[in-house]
Write a structure and sequence with these properties.
The protein is α/β, with parallel strands linked by helices and 298 residues long. The protein has two domains: 2-146 and 194-285, Metallo-beta-lactamase, Chain A (4-Layer Sandwich); 153-187, no CATH class. The chain has helices at 37-42, 61-64, 66-76, 89-99, 153-158, 165-171, 208-213, 231-237, 242-251, 269-276; strands at residues 2-5, 19-24, 27-31, 53-55, 83-87, 108-112, 116-120, 124-130, 138-144, 176-178, 181-183, 197-200, 219-223, 256-260, 283-285. It is globular. The model has no long low-confidence stretch (mean pLDDT 96). Bound molecules: zinc ion (ZN) (2 copies). One zinc ion is lined by residues 58, 60, 133, 203. One zinc ion binds at residues 8, 18, 60, 62-63, 203, 261.
């Protein structure tokens, strides 16, 4: 996961507008696409990698204006593979208005998000949940499929299973038959291993609904527009303070919390981390270009 922009509302010298990239098995997924995202990508470890799916939280300019430039550049680089954009209906209208007549050389598909499952691929699913902000807005959660357990080759040899296709079948969790005997995967393969999970809040007040939605995620990127000093502003404008982000992450049993979407009025992300750390043990500031690895579960 790479933070491409960590500022709220307007960019600063050191922070671009909101965008978070998730790379998994060669595929690039973007969560929000603030103005300047394509250039931030070039300056990050992603280089010229191209996103296949873009999940937009809501139609506020700071989260969506980068989409059009990025997609036009993909068009000029002669992309052929389709790109899917997910978001509330309003984002679909913007995409149609700006790019409807652009003659992009690839298929641009917009899928309206209303909550629930939005993507189901072989290796992962993505779900959306209404968040609590001004206008229709969504948080997203990605869950990888569980992986088969660890294969024990010594045990397979002891049981006399010949190496080759039968081993593969066992690794996939299927029983095998040979010489009239049956060997079940449970005797040579360890328990299933959990897939990794990732959450992205977009702009929101903390809520019980989001706390449940993010239950147990390994890595959560949560907005932290303000520090506690600006609690009133957070409530008025539909945002969270760092302390609120930390409290929600702790209650949801999140593994690791990364704060982002810092108001230009709160330039010291260190203070935000300190506030959230009162509630959660693993908090980082998601500064531009910073990457966070999610190790596979054993
Ligand atoms: Zn915002
Ligand atoms: Zn907003």
């Amino acid at each position: 996961m790479t933070i491409l922009g960590s500022s709220a509302a307007m960019p600063t010298k050191r922070r671009g507008l909101p965008a978070v990239a998730v790379e998994r098995e060669g595929e690039l997924l973007l969560f929000d696409c603030g103005e300047g995202t394509q250039r931030q990508m070039m300056n990050s470890r992603l280089g010229r990698m191209q996103p296949s799916k873009i999940f937009v939280s809501h139609a506020h300019g700071d989260h969506v204006l980068g989409l059009f430039g990025l997609l036009m550049t993909l068009g000029m680089s002669d992309r052929k593979a389709p790109v899917k954009v997910f978001g509330p209906a309003e984002v679909g209208d913007m995409v149609e208005d700006v790019l409807g007549g652009a003659g992009l050389p690839f298929e641009l598909l917009f899928e309206r998000v209303t909550g629930g499952r939005v993507v189901k691929e072989k290796g992962y699913i993505v779900r959306a949940q209404r968040s609590d902000h001004h206008g229709e807005s969504y948080a997203y959660r990605l869950d990888e499929a569980k992986r088969p357990g660890r294969f024990n080759p010594d045990r397979a040899k002891e049981l006399g299973v010949p190496e080759g296709p039968l081993w593969h079948r066992l690794q996939e969790g299927k029983a095998v038959r040979f010489h009239g005997r049956e060997v079940r995967p449970g005797s040579v393969v360890g328990p299933w291993r959990m897939g990794r999970s990732f959450g992205y809040s977009g702009d929101t007040r903390p809520s019980g609904r989001l706390q449940r939605f993010f239950r147990g995620v390994d890595l959560l990127v949560f907005e932290s527009t303000y520090t506690s000093e600006y609690q009133d502003e957070a409530e008025e404008y539909g945002h969270s303070t760092a302390a609120e982000a930390g409290r929600l992450a702790a209650r949801a049993g999140v593994g690791r919390l990364v704060l982002t979407h810092f108001s230009p009025r709160v330039p010291d992300a260190g203070l935000a981390v300190k506030e959230a750390s009162r509630y959660h043990a693993d908090v980082s500031a998601g500064n531009d270009f910073e990457s966070f690895d999610l190790p596979l579960h054993d």
